[in-house]
Amino acid sequence: MNGPYKPGTPCWIDLMVPDQQAALDFYCDLFGWQGEVGPPEQGGYSLCTLKGKPVAGIMKAMNPDGTVPDPMPPTAWTTYLSTDAIDSVLASVTDASGHVVVGPMDVMDLGRMAVVTDPAGAAFGLWQPGTFDGAAIVNEPGALIWSELVTPDPAAASAFYSSVLPVTTAPSEMEGAEGYIEFRVAGRPVGGIMDLGMMPDGVPPHWQVYFNVDSVDDVQSAAVRAGATVLAPAFDMVAGRMAVLADPQGGSFAVIAPRGSA
């Protein structure tokens, strides 16, 4: 990626975990990233890179004052949607029955961020870029390729996100994906919406991250050897071959080898 993402587009992901170093070891080994615990003035935030370019962040779970949370929040990946007007978007989120969880706050000169929840409770981030636009590599093996909202009411979710960001929603035009809804920015698919009813009982509304990989089966095996849990074993679907995994600290993510990539 060169230049800023269009508003409404997923532009960055990060993971909050109890054991930051263990997460770095797991994901760097799995995806070929480079990363280390960041400096104290940045809260230890780890900027993970692929081919020398930023692709994701990993941070230790902590309270704003630096203390350890009690209880510890669940390990989770957060998808950040790009915006050029974060304060007005936050006002729209509140007006549309969403909630502001964190922020807004400046991140040095890199940009301005916030974390919110939609009316169903799915958390996502907002990023207004300064000197940092977001992920510099996407859609390649080892990098983010797709973000998907899992929600109990896709129609209500479509209305909410379309009211707070310059996105539209429409049924997928991909053969075999009938009923699947896409988020689109300027007519281009940038993410998806899946009905929570298709998930196992107990799964909460959330944003799921997908990473591009060369071989889903090999990555699944490597992840299991490193202590991960298989939530949905490797299977073939309309867009390619995919699996859903949980890292050793419980953070869920999907891996996909897109159809036609091999």
Feature tags:
262 residues, alpha+beta, 8-stranded mixed β-sheet, 7-stranded mixed β-sheet, 16% helix
Brief digest:
The chain has 4 helices and 15 strands. With 262 residues, the protein is α+β, with helices and mostly antiparallel strands.
What report would you give on this structure?
The model has no long low-confidence stretch (mean pLDDT 93). With 262 residues, the protein is α+β, with helices and mostly antiparallel strands. The chain is globular and about 50 Å long. It contains four helices and 15 strands. The protein has helices at 20-31, 86-95, 154-164, 216-225; strands at 10-17, 46-50, 53-60, 76-82, 99-107, 111-117, 123-129, 144-151, 168-171, 181-185, 188-195, 206-212, 229-237, 240-246, 252-258. The strands form two sheets. Strands 9-10-11-8-12-15-14-13 form an eight-stranded mixed β-sheet, covered by helices on one side. Helix content is 16%, strand content 40%. 39% of the residues are buried.
